[in-house]
Amino acid sequence: MAESEGNLSIGQVAERTGLSVHALRFYEQEGVLINAVPRGAGGRRVYNERDVDWLNLCVILRASGMPLPEIRRYTELARQGSGNEPERIELLRRHQSEVAARMKQLEQCMDIITFKVRVYEDIIDSADGQSCHAPAQLEDEERHRATDPLPPREPSDVM
Predict the structure, then answer these.
(1) Which class for 108: exposed (0-12), middle (13-18), buried (19 or more C-beta within 10 A)?
(2) Measuring CA to CA, which residue among 71, 63, 19 is closest to residue 45?
(3) The Cα angle at residue 94 between residues 102 and 106, in degrees rounded to 5
(4) What pTM was computed for the model?
(5) Within the chain, where are the H helices?
(6) 32: helix, coil or strand?
(7) Which are the contacts of 142, defined by CB distance < 8 A and separation ≥ 6?
(8) Could you give the angle at which helices 85-125 and 68-80 cross, rounded to 10 degrees?
(9) Which of 13, 43, 85, 159 counts the most CB atoms within 10 A of its CB?
(10) Burial 56-91 (b: 16+ CB within 10 A, else e)
(11) In Å, what is the CA distance from 36 to each residue of 23, 31, 79, 105, 137?
(12) What is the average pLDDT across 92-107?
């Protein structure tokens, strides 16, 4: 199968999408491919550039946290062709909102991690040589927390 002809093997598609051969078969079985994958000589799957493009979109949607049923629904809408763009937009906007909320949560997590790094850097840089496990550490952390612009958070708010 020559790649220049647009006939790609499952191995070539796996390499180009970053998906395993097993994942490609799973996506096909779950109905998230835009077209049925034809079989070539010997019953082997034959993909084309449009399949690769669609799979790359699916990879991005999954990486952003879109559940498989939503990807399947988006695929179904795309298969139907034009006329359902408002429904596609709604699905994507809903997911966009969920991604934005997760990004905000991750920013809060990063703020806390950055704060903790500063605390430990200050402990290491201190002239008194306290270890990270010294009883005075809690006092140091409280002092840093009092001067840090981050509001106190409950651990459950972080993740």
Answers:
(1) middle
(2) 19
(3) 5
(4) 0.70
(5) 10-17, 21-30, 49-63, 68-80, 85-125, 137-147, 155-158
(6) coil
(7) none
(8) 150
(9) 13
(10) ebbeebbeeebeeebbebbbeeeeeeeeeeeeeeeb
(11) 16, 9, 11, 38, 61
(12) 98
By the 8 A CB rule, do 80 and 130 touch? Answer: no
How far apart are alpha carbons 135 and 127 in whole angstroms? 16
CA-derived radius of gyration, the chain: 25
Token pair 């993740």: residue:
159
Mean pLDDT of the chain: 84
Can you say whether the dihedral through the CA atoms of 80, 85, 87, 91 is positive or negative? positive
* 109 beta partners: none
Tokens of 135: 């009883």
| Structure tokens given for 37 | 């994958």
Residue given tokens 């779950």 in the structure block? 30
Q: Give the tens place of pLDDT for each residue, 7-43.
A: 999 999 999 999 999 999 999 999 999 999 999 888 8
Note the residue count of the chain: 159
Look at the block and give the residue holding tokens 């002092």. 143
